[in-house]
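Support request from a user on the community tier.

User writes: "When I paste my structure tokens into the form, the page sometimes reloads and wipes my input. The last time it worked, I copied everything first. Here is what I submitted, just in case something in the input itself triggers the reload:"
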């Protein structure tokens, strides 16, 4: 069992229509801290097999910050710059994982994770002074189940090699994809290694390439005459490098 104390800092910038043929710039920013909790258990179900379960609670944030709207010349728009607030919930998650050792060198890994993204349907920004709604970002996210498989190989007493693949569906539906959150289903391919530098210290290195499913967008806010229509497609990939040092006392 443990407690999580987290901090979020959110910033959204976008174009806004100030009048016929006139675009301005809007910037919304807010931050807050939140407290959550997690619980887990590990079971030795067989001499060479371990099973783990974990649950992490959702975290509720009361964001506070500012809204700034400017003209193309960078001048503030009267009445559109003020302090704001917004309620944001980051979802709860649960996972079950297994490790099966194949002798002294090889081990197989599997993980099934559930994310309750449906807790986030919209982000509503309000005036901190009056409570009036300034803008609403419709998200309509869906719950997801992530599946991952991997293997480790103990090269010697100092080195352990890792590789894995994960199928990570997006919480964003095709019908509600927006330019603010153009996410898509992902496949992760990962490689890594652990170097046991001493009895107490270890270094972990990892590389991941993320393949995103090609996606499209066909979205409008209001009418085409007033706000325009966004139509297009996305072809995305990402590379992630990570480094970690662990020291046991």
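"...and here is what came back when it finally went through:"
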């Amino acid at each position: 069992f443990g407690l999580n104390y987290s901090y979020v800092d959110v910033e959204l910038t976008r174009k806004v229509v100030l009048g016929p043929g006139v675009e301005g710039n809007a910037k919304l920013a807010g931050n807050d801290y939140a407290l959550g909790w997690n619980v887990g258990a590990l079971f030795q179900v067989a001499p060479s097999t371990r099973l783990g379960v974990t649950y992490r609670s959702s975290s509720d944030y009361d964001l506070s910050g500012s809204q700034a709207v400017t003209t193309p010349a960078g001048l503030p728009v009267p009445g559109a710059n003020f302090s704001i607030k917004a309620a944001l919930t980051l979802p709860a998650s649960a996972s079950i994982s297994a490790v099966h050792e194949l002798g002294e060198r090889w081990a197989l890994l599997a993980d099934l994770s559930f994310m309750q993204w449906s807790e986030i349907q919209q982000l509503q920004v309000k005036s901190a002074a009056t409570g009036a709604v300034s803008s609403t970002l419709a998200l309509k996210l869906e719950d997801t189940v992530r599946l991952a498989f991997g293997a480790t190989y103990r090269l010697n007493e100092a080195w352990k090699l890792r590789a894995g693949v994960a199928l990570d569906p997006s919480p964003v539906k095709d019908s509600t994809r927006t330019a603010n959150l153009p996410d898509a289903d992902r496949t992760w391919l990962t490689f890594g290694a652990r170097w046991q530098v001493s009895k107490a210290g270890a270094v972990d290195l990892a590389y991941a390439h993320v393949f995103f499913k090609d996606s499209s967008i066909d979205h409008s806010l209001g009418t085409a005459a007033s706000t325009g229509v966004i139509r297009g497609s996305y072809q995305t990939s990402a590379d992630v490098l990570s480094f970690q040092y662990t020291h046991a006392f």
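Agent notes: The reload is a front-end session timeout and is unrelated to the input. The chain has two domains: 1-91+114-143, 155-249. Residues 24 and 216 are 26 Å apart (CA to CA). Escalated to web team.
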